[in-house]
Write a structure and sequence with these properties.
TIM Barrel; binds phosphoenolpyruvate
Length: 261
């Protein structure tokens, strides 16, 4: 019997950092490290850098994506961007529901649900971010919060439509604080995410779904986090801004593929 292994995907989230020039210089040095049939390396970059980076990574396995998009296909929404514009610029994926968007720009699950649908329509892979706040964690509400976010953000979608979905579990209390969740905590929640997806969609979808962990991942904890069976990849903010750290994490992640044989 051939055993199935989920892909390992390492995504950098650059947030509002890096000019086009800085981004191009980073990517040109990253390209030689990224190999075919190995760890997937994705970069969620500022809108301004998408087009030029997408050109630069053509014929390489590197994927360029966006950090947000609007839920409409077009319209009078000053300052917003549509999925089809990102796709045309060369984006392959888009982060949706990041906790900074939820907290600072009041995005709710219904809005995120409309964005997921629009991203799929535009041919972008949605990377749906879910995670509980510190208060919710301390109140023992993690599973309830995660279940609600998954259910509401993926409402009215069917398993067949979600084959390209990636889920990123990002406990809000771990993002940008230098203190990641322990591998055991992340594993427990990510296994729960898979269970919810199996119950709500199908066990086939849940089995093949890439679920990333994000929240203060760095060169010291990446390998241990990835050693957990339900952690298929990492979503990395701060440590993805340094070429040296990001390359080290990408190289460390190769051990997950090697351990799968
Ligand atoms: C993020 O913003 O998605 C993130 C995980 O940030 P950091 O790695 O800096 O905690």
């Amino acid at each position: 019997m051939v055993s199935f292994h989920r892909p390992v995907v390492i995504t950098g989230n650059w947030k509002m950092y890096k000019t086009i020039q800085e981004a191009q210089s980073f990517v040109s040095q990253l390209i030689p490290v990224v190999e075919e049939d190995d760890v997937g390396v994705w970069l969620a970059v500022p809108f301004t850098a998408i087009y030029s980076l997408a050109q630069e990574v053509q014929k390489t396995p590197l994927m360029i994506g966006a950090q947000n998009m609007n839920d409409a296909s077009e319209g009078a929404f000053t300052g917003e961007i549509a999925g089809k514009m990102l796709k045309e610029a060369g984006a392959s994926f888009v982060l949706l529901g990041h906790s900074e968007r939820r907290r600072l720009y009041h995005e709710d699950n219904a809005f995120i649900n409309r964005k997921v649908k629009r991203a799929l329509e535009a041919g972008l892979r949605p990377v749906l971010c879910v995670g509980e706040t510190l208060q919710e964690y301390e109140a023992g509400e993690t599973q309830h919060v995660i279940q609600t976010q998954l259910t509401e953000c993926l409402k009215e979608l069917a398993a067949e439509q979600l084959k390209s979905l990636v889920i990123a579990y990002e406990p809000v209390w771990a993002i940008g604080h230098g203190q990641s969740a322990t591998p055991e905590i992340a594993q427990e929640v990510q296994s729960f995410c898979r269970q919810v997806m199996a119950e709500q969609f199908s066990s086939e979808l849940a089995e093949q779904l890439v679920i990333q962990y994000g929240g203060s991942v760095n060169t010291s904890n990446a390998k241990e986090l990835l050693s957990q069976p339900d952690i298929d990849g990492l979503l990395i903010g701060g440590a993805s801004l340094s070429l040296e750290s990001f390359i080290q994490i990408v190289n460390d992640s190769k051990s997950k593929i090697q351990s799968q044989g």
